[in-house]
Amino acid sequence: QITLKESGPTLVKPTQTLTLTCTFSGFSLSTSGVGVGWIRQPPGKALEWLALIYWDDDERYSPSLKSRLTITKDTSKNQVVLTMTNMDPVDTATYYCAHRPYGSSWHHWGQGILVTVSS
Amino acid sequence: QSALTQPASVSGSPGQSITISCTGTNSDVGSSNLVSWYQQHPGKAPKLMIYEVSKRPSGVSNRFSGSKSGNTASLTISGLQAEDEADYYCCSYAGFSTPFVFGTGTKVTVL
Fold first, then answer.
1. Which residues pair with residue A52 across a beta bridge?
2. Cβ within 8 Å, pair A105-B52
3. Is the pLDDT assigned to residue B1 strictly greater than 90?
């Protein structure tokens, strides 16, 4: 059974850096082709893809947010970490991590974590 | 990379069939068969319903089907049921540097 769970702060102040951790089980991020990524959803709005890290450490970022994002992995801990700098109230959203076994589809999702940006 | 275009809302009566469109460009939807669809109930995480245009993951009802023509992908729900009332999002491969772009989302209402 594949599971993913997001953890991190639920409230950050403007200009701060957000660090979110995705802890997963049921698959290995060292398996060829596998990736783990982050997707966010502002309240009442659509899904937005943020970042993806592949089994071979290759990284991909949303062009509009690339300068603010870093994604890393710790295969031994089954974790993927997303950092987003210079947080703004418009970044208030539920942040999901998800499992991409191959291709361009997200087969398993975490429950999400609501992050609010407010002073 | 712009979001894929979906109708804001689609509705149907129980038992009917509805189709949700997802329109992109030659650079995303039209460039490959890597289109997927997700169902999201309020307050819940999205759930994969269709991948690679028309494949269903294990456990997904065969009432859900997908297709693609040119730059437009479609999700059809047949035999509409109350439990199908949810938001639906398409997602497409959009190139080596931007492997994912989501649609604007469609709210499905069962009348």
1. A37, A60
2. yes
3. no
